Every structure is written in structure tokens, then in C-alpha cells.
Amino acid sequence: xxxxxxxTHQVLVGRIPLGGSAPVVVQSMTNTxxxxxxxxxxxxxxxxxxxxxxxxxxxxxxxSAAALGEIRQRLDDMGVDVPLVGDFHFNGHRLLEKYPECxxxxxxxxxxxxxxxxxxxxxxxxxxxxEKAMEYGxxxxxxxxxxxxDKQLVARMMDENARRKSPLDSDHMIREIMVTSALESAAxxxxxxxDADRIVLSCKMSGVQDLIAVYQMLSERCDYALHLGLTxxxxxxxxxxASTAALSVLLQQGIGDTIRISLTPEPGGSRSTxxxxxxxxxxxxxxxxxxxxxIACPGCGRTTSTYFxxxxxxxxxxxxxxxxxxxxxxxxxxxMNVAVMGCVVNGPGESKHANIGIxxxxxxxxxxxxxxxxxxxxxxxxxxxxxxxFQRIVEDYVKRTYA
Length: 403
Known about the structure:
The chain has 403 residues and is an alpha/beta fold. 47% of the residues lie in helices and 18% in strands. Strand 13, helix 11 (305-329) and strand 14 (337-341) form a beta-alpha-beta unit. Helix 6 packs across helix 7 and helix 11 (305-329) runs parallel beside helix 13. The protein is elongated and about 80 Å long. The two termini are 24 Å apart.
């Protein structure tokens, strides 16, 4: 699906083009102690293998800054070439100066204008980070967050608003302050000498409607590449639903060049869940394809539910396990659709619309499962080995169609 993007500056983050006509980029962030090199390398590799195209790490102290060079080297030795982003707050100017290996290892520096410094030190410290980005040829994300806004800017703009004949309400003012913070900081970076095609902006909020409104404002007022994300999205289905609701509206409007889903992992859960959610949002909007999709009905009283549910899961697991090999050998396979349906009501129709589909027998129906390939019924499967037989049909189709 073609959606015209509103912001046209393209930024190169390591090897990854971001913005302009480039595909929307999926990124994620580690939650390891960056100073723990082994743990950080393992998690970056996990996220990259799950499909994260950029991975951000916290760089909050000297130990973490000192570790970045070794982290980058170990990843390169493993063949994991995902670009790394450094998340700096409060002391980034000192860390980038003291640890040149850190400055070189990172592909992008994240600067929060709300905590880069205050008073006269604010400009000095902000400029120092921009100068390091220029020295090493790195991109910069100027990331405003409503939980850590520039206090001086807030005071100035609130005073200005109070003097208006018709003051804006507080919600509108927060959005105005965030957009102003991002744009003024970007202008300052350019005044120092950083090119616009090395700047990414973000204005993150935790409310869905707030996020939509602030990015609509930001997009109307600039042409920089934009990073989308609902900050502190939360856990489980709440975080997934809220992030999907907010980002889908913006992406459909052509707003956003890279996305991150800020999920709180379940206890013991994988950090890579946020990568899969980001991919599913883009694939559902038909903006990108990452893996073949299984179309499956929810089940009802007509279905022998446990059977078709298990088959749907088996097929999805099979597709996921096959994708590392398929993606190398069969370009285009990620756009394939597979239908696993539970009865004759919608089963044959959905199967015909998919690349490959199977319509399983529902409760009381004849124990036979017709298979459709590109809309044509090719075989009817019966017996105990339906799942294995269907997988062989899918494998043969992939080899024949995407070779």
C-alpha cells in the first residue's frame, strides 16, 4: 500500500536509511545494564534477530560509555551489524568527550532537550553533543518527552500564555511546548552546523490522543524525519492496543519514519515482543511485510475448536521457523498469506483469497479438508497427518513461487 509521507528529509543511521521514501524502520531498546557487556550483546543480538533494525542502549555513566566499543566489536564479530543508538541524559556531553570509542561505536545519539542542562550550561552542553555528532558523522535524535520537559521553556511559554487575552488550555500548551522544544533545539543544532539530514525529532507522550495531536502539529511545522512511539505504553494487551491505536492513525496519515513500541515486558518475558508488535502494526497497515501471515477464524459452535486452533498454531510456528531460511532463499515470501479456517461457512472463501488455504471440517461436517492454492482447489486432505501434509504443500508452493 502506498501512503505518501509528509516529512521528506532522509537520515542515514549507520547503514539504515530513515525518512523520505525509505520504509518505516523498526527499532527497540535494551533493558540490560549497558556496562554488562555479555548481557547487552546477547540482548542486542536477540532484538536484531527478531527484526529490530536499530537498537538503543542506555549510556548513563562512565562504565556504560566505556563498554560501547567492546559491545560494537563483539556484535560485529558475531555478524550482527545492527546500528546502535546511545540514549543520553544529563551527562552525554562529558561521556562523548571522554570516551571516543563510545562516540564512534554509536550510529545515532539521542539527546533530551529537557535534561541536557540548565541556564547557560544548557546551550554549551547541547552544542558539545552536536559537535561530537558532526565530528564523527553521526545522526542525532532530539527526543522530547512530556515527563522531562525543559523547565525554563515551560516557564517562559506558560507566562506568555497567561498574558494572552484568550489563553490556551493546559493540554494544548503542553503540546505547544513540546513541539517548540523540538523545533528550537533542531534549529540550534543546525546553527552549530549539523545538517538537517542528520536530525530526527520525537515528541513522546503516554496518552493516545495527546500523541496523535502533538505529532500532527510537529509534522505540519517541520520536514525532519520523525520517530514515533507512545512512551510508557504499559504492559501486555494495554500497551499493545494503546500503541497500535496511536501509531496506526499517524502512519495512515503519512506521519512517522521509525517506530518503537515501549512495552513493559511480562516477568520473564522476552524483550523482542516489542519488535514483533511493531512489525505487525506495519504489516497490518500494508506498509511493510516481514513474515507470511496466517488468516484464521476465531472459532464458534460450528468448529471442532481445539483441532483447528492447534493446526493454526502449528502452521504459524512452522512459518516463523522457516523464515530465516526462506528470507535468504526466496525473496518476496514475507508477503505470502496462508488461511487456516475452521468450517465451511467462510473457510472455502477465505482459502480462495489466500495464497494457500485449508478449510478444516467443523463439528459434524465430513472429515475432509480441501486445500486451495491461488484460488484453485488442488487436493482434499484426510486422516491424522493433515498438518504435516499441509506444511509440505506450503513448502512446495514457496519453492515454486518465490525461487
